[in-house]
Amino acid sequence: MSASVSRRVRRQVEERARSRCEYCLLPQQLSPAVHEIDHIVPVVDGGESVLENLCLSCRSCNSAKHDHVSGADPESGRLVRLFHPRNQQWSRHFLWNAADGRIVGRTAAGRATVVALQMNDERLIELRLLWAGGGWYPPAD
Questions:
Q1: Are 129 and 136 in contact (CB under 8 A)?
Q2: Which pTM value belongs to this model?
């Protein structure tokens, strides 16, 4: 729903995210498609087009997330809120596994987000391993 976001706000979101997906950390320069603006709380659920509710998302994460705000934790089976980039710290909820290229959920929200956003799709894992081999992924910080 980036159509309702001005260019100025988009630039602010991109700068805050350091031009990388705020879900999987994919840098824009490694993506074949332009990263999109995601409404963390979707407009259909009352989310607004304000900085506090917007994040930068790669096409893969944004397409899979769609208008979801919750998902099942594969460990407990409970329905939990997905990772919220404005309110939660990535490293608390996720871990990069360099050995196999997977993003691992460390918490219920992290695990549910990994599944809901299909972060460990086989083609994404292959790409991450290639990028990691070149020193381009994950971001240094």
A1: no
A2: 0.93
What is the rounded average pLDDT of the residues 88-98? 96
* 42 in a structural domain: yes
Would you say residue 20 lies in a domain? Answer: yes
Distance CA 90, CA 84 (A): 9
Q: How many domains does the chain have?
A: 1
Domain enclosing residue 38, as ranges: 2-133
3-state DSSP of the chain: CHHHCCHHHHHHHHHHCCCECCCCCCEHHHCCCCCEEEECCCHHHCCCCCHHHEEEECHHHHHHHCCCCEEECCCCCCEEECCCCCCCCHHHHEEEECCCCEEEECCHHHHHHHHHCCCCCHHHHHHHHHHHHCCCCCCCC
pLDDT tens-place string over residues 103-136: 999 999 999 999 999 999 999 999 999 999 999 9
Across the chain, what does the average pLDDT equal? 94
